[in-house]
Amino acid sequence: MSDTSELVPFRARRAPNPLDPRNNADAFEMRLLLRSSDLSDALRLRHRAYADHGHVPHIDGAEYRDAHDDYPTTALFGAYDGGRLVACMRLCFSMPGNNLASLPCASYYPALAGVAANAPHGFVEVSRLAIEPGIGNTSYRATLYGFMVRAALAAARAAAVSRIVVATRPDWVATYKHLLSFEQIGEPALYPPGNMPITLLSGNLEDASKRAFMRNRFFRVSDGDIADMRHLLAPLLTTPSAPTARRREG
Fold first, then answer.
1. 3-state secondary structure string, 224-240?
2. How far apart are the first and last CA of the chain?
3. Which residues on adjacent β-strands are paired with residue 90?
4. Where are the beta strands (DSSP E) in the chain?
5. pLDDT tens digits for 121-136?
6. Is 200 in contact with 164 (CB distance < 8 Å)?
7. Angstrom distance (rounded) from CA 44 to CA 132
């Protein structure tokens, strides 16, 4: 894999109605983060977002990270607007034949093991999705959040996994159920970094993609999007799912 962060060239619509597919104004850029400087920027943004929600103390320059950030089957993505990092997201893959240890949620939600039989092609967990807390425009944030979800769908389809899982705050459960037909897995648990019960949701990838597209054409993922993601993720998806630290590039 290259030692420079790579661009995923698909676009998201923004103002004035961010989820209107007729809008083709300015675009976000999604990058797979590989350089140490880019990864640090994303981990600092993540910390700021968690601090803004009261989950961690405000500490200038602090990074929020855990062991799964360094797994070889983890991909960290950043969304950029005009060269400025505005959001980040982590995707963790568990491919066929691997155990679930590469999924951060597995140790907190034992009920996930019961879903594995219905996931012959593996899982991807969407986690640590964070938006720069200084961005206050609600419409902009909604579009950006949707862009990240769309990118996660593209990555999941590129990896050809069976299911997507996401551990989310109580106020987002209804959105995921409505938009992607996700279902709750087990009971809510205290999932770091917060101290509130977090709900684990899961959905069949094909059903989720169709549901999202029917709800809004914004979520259409093209064959080109999938091909771009497949190219970027190829080295990661051929790596054994083991809890081994990945070297951060300079």
1. HHHHHHHHHHHHHHCCC
2. 13
3. 76, 127
4. 6-8, 29-32, 74-81, 84-94, 123-131, 163-168, 183-184, 189-190, 197-204
5. 889 999 999 999 999 8
6. no
7. 10
* Cβ-proximal residues to 165 (8 Å cutoff; 6+ apart), any chain: 103, 105, 112, 123, 124, 125, 126, 185, 200, 201, 202
**Residue whose C-alpha is closest to residue 21's, from 147, 208, 148:** 147
| Residue 200: per-residue pLDDT | 93
39 secondary structure, DSSP code: H
Domains and CATH numbers, the chain: 6-237 (3.40.630.30)
Angstrom CA distances, 80 to 19, 185, 250, stand at: 18, 32, 20
In the prediction, which pLDDT does 25 show? Answer: 38
The model carries a pTM of: 0.83
Q: How confident is the model at residue 241 (pLDDT cuts 50, 70, 90)?
A: very low
197: number of Cβ within 10 Å:
12
Residue 19 has pLDDT above 70, yes or no: no
Alpha-carbon gap, residue 210 to 196, rounded angstroms:
31
Q: Which two tokens stand for residue 161?
A: 């996994």
Residue 149's CB is within 10 A of a number of other CB atoms, namely 23
Strands 197-204 and 84-94: unpaired
